[in-house]
Amino acid sequence: MKKKITIKNFFLLLIITSLLVWLFLLIKRNNTSLINLPDHSVIKYQIAGKTIKVEVVNKADSISRGLGGRENLNVDGMLFVFPSPVTTSFWMKDMLFPIDLYWIANEQIVGVEKNMLPPNDLNSQETMKVYYSPGMVDMVLEIPTNKDILLP
């Protein structure tokens, strides 16, 4: 026995499909819009149910420099945005204060490095620990530990 698709069912299916497409585009738009912001833009960013104020870095030289050499950060954190998902690593070169680092993929925290300490001697950084992403990530969030922002 064949089921007839009624006009009501057709429109219901059309609405559900449209909502799913809209949701997918909304999720994809967030990272795309962040990569198109001017480098070092300050925005409010929502992650793990919290809204924080971050400085966005999305250019290769800014990502490479990160928070190195800075004595403090005037916002809650620094958000590194990559043009596409990558396996990457971070270290504490030229860092002057401890941070928590959050590996992010598709708007979800996929790994955390807590209380990463700056080097004892900025002149001897060759043996510094390197922190590797747990897989492909499209963003990394660094938050100074003195900000007392707890994310999962």
Average predicted local confidence, pLDDT: 84
Largest sheet strand order = 1-2-3-8-5-6
N-to-C CA distance: 52 Å
CATH topology: Jelly Rolls
Q: Sketch the major β-sheet.
A: 6 strands, mixed
What is the CATH class designation?
Mainly Beta
> What's the architecture, going by CATH?
Sandwich
Characterization of this structure:
This protein is of the alpha+beta class and 152 residues long. It has one domain (37-147): Protein of unknown function DUF192 (Jelly Rolls, Sandwich). Helices cover 23% and strands 35% of the residues. It has two helices and eight strands. The strands form two sheets. Strands 1-2-3-8-5-6 form a six-stranded mixed sheet. Strands 4-7 form a two-stranded antiparallel sheet. Helix 2 links the parallel strand 2 (50-57) and strand 3. The chain is elongated, with a radius of gyration of 20 Å. The relative contact order is 0.17. Mean pLDDT is 84; it is low at 25-30.
List the helices and strands and how they pair.
Elements: H1 7-35, E1 41-47, E2 50-57, H2 60-65, E3 77-86, E4 89-90, E5 99-105, E6 108-116, E7 131-132, E8 137-144
Parallel strand pairs: 2-3
Antiparallel strand pairs: 1-2, 3-8, 4-7, 5-6, 5-8
Main attributes of the structure:
152 residues, alpha+beta, Jelly Rolls, two-stranded antiparallel sheet, 2 helices, 35% strand
